[in-house]
Amino acid sequence: MDRQRSCLTSLGFGVLAFTSVLAFYSSWGDASSVGFVLLADAALLLLFLCLREFEQGGGRGRDARIKTAVWCLTTLFTAMFASRVAPLMPPLVGALVWTMAVATAAGGVWAFFLNP
To answer: What sections of the protein cross the membrane (predicted)?
Structure first.
């Protein structure tokens, strides 16, 4: 099982690297798009490391710090993608995108920290 997980993880990182290279190539010259891809990749790698650390276990205080890091990274993802999608939509739909992003972040707070 562990070898299968390792192969899938390697495959996932390979796909991430390939799509990131394609994104760099297609947005070369647009610094904000290249920065978006770099930040998204870094956040995704950090999220993966946090989840791996959470799976391995640790102390109670350590779990709380990892949950906080996971919530911050997922909220960062939500805000990043909402900031890219909302301007492409009509104003009312853009407001709905941001409302859903805030609701998702609030739901994460409830699920991670307030739900016993």
So the answer is: 33-54, 66-86, 92-114
pLDDT score at 55: 79
String of DSSP letters for 10-69 = HHHHHHHHHHHHHHHHHTTT-HHHHHHHHHHHHHHHHHHHHHHHHHH---HHHHHHHHHH
- Sequence spans of domains, the chain: 2-114
Question: DSSP per residue over 65-108, as a string?
Answer: HHHHHHHHHHHHHHHHHHHHHGGGS-HHHHHHHHHHHHHHHHHH
Which of 18, 70, 36 minimizes the C-alpha distance to 10? 18
CB atoms within 10 A of CB 6: 10
With bands split at pLDDT 50, 70 and 90, how would you rate the model's confidence at 4?
Answer: low
